[in-house]
Amino acid sequence: MKRHVVLPSPPLRPHVRNIMLGEFSSTGSHLPATPDVQLVIYLRGRAALIGRSSEEALPLAFITGPCLAPRKFHVEAGSRFVGITFRPSGFSACFGLPANLFCDRTVDLEDALPHGVAAQLMDELREAAQMSAAVRTAEEFLLRCLLDGRRRDGGLPALALERLLLPAAALADELSLGTRQLERRFLVNYGMPLRDFRRLARFSSVLAQLLAGTPASLNMARIAAEAHYVDQAHFIRDFRQFVGDTPGRFLKARQEEGSIYSLWQFNSSELPSFLD
């Protein structure tokens, strides 16, 4: 798989984790569960979500929200795409839409934005001859969204894992909010209830360490303990649920040619844009 991953410009960094331009060489893709909201636009080819008994063709441009289950896709070989991954609260800040509307869903971008906006963005991205021009086009679009007056009130700050793992009442007290007020704001800004998001955040912190290390250097028990898992077995159960595989098989398979985990074959320069 070919791809180019960039950090957004400084005005967007509080809201956007990264922008990826990629082209699939294989026809299968498998994505772990994620706490992030993503905007994806196919500039050539297309993809379908593989269900238990059928395939569901995805729109050429769509928003997909946080999800607690891994997803498998069939992708036309040679498909090119632009993907924008938002930080917690970032999607709501950019579009003025509650992130929980997209939890475990894939929504056509045309249905989420004012009429004609998605089509114009797709046309502009297709006209961009160079990767740098496509990134600039995506950033200009996001900056317009931030500045057009639709930003929601009642945001939440970025919350490190240690704070996310606090009891809801204690976290609410730290933020000078009532518990129910925190739960409502969390749902709108983070896309799912606190109890679900904290599980994904803990899993993501472990995944970051696995992707950054080498199999020989990884101490699974230590990594699980640092992420506040009860024990290594607890970590492996969560990993199986969120990836659909064991940590060992995942790490081995993602290095193989044509792997369904090819999107996770990050090099050292790309990792910070995904895992910070």
Brief account:
Residues 171-253 form the HTH araC/xylS-type domain. The protein has helices spanning 90-95, 109-112, 117-127, 131-147, 161-164, 168-174, 179-190, 194-212, 220-226, 232-243, 247-253, 271-275; strands spanning 2-6, 16-23, 28-31, 38-44, 47-50, 55-57, 61-64, 71-75, 80-86, 106-108. With 276 residues, it is of the alpha+beta class.
Would you write up a description of this structure?
The protein is of the alpha+beta class and 276 residues long. It has a domain at 2-147: Jelly Rolls, CATH 2.60.120. The chain contains 12 helices and 10 strands. InterPro entries: AraC_XylS_family_regulators (IPR050204), DUF6597 (IPR046532), Homeodomain-like_sf (IPR009057), HTH_AraC (IPR018060). Keywords: DNA-binding, Transcription, Transcription regulation. Residues 171-253 form the HTH araC/xylS-type domain.
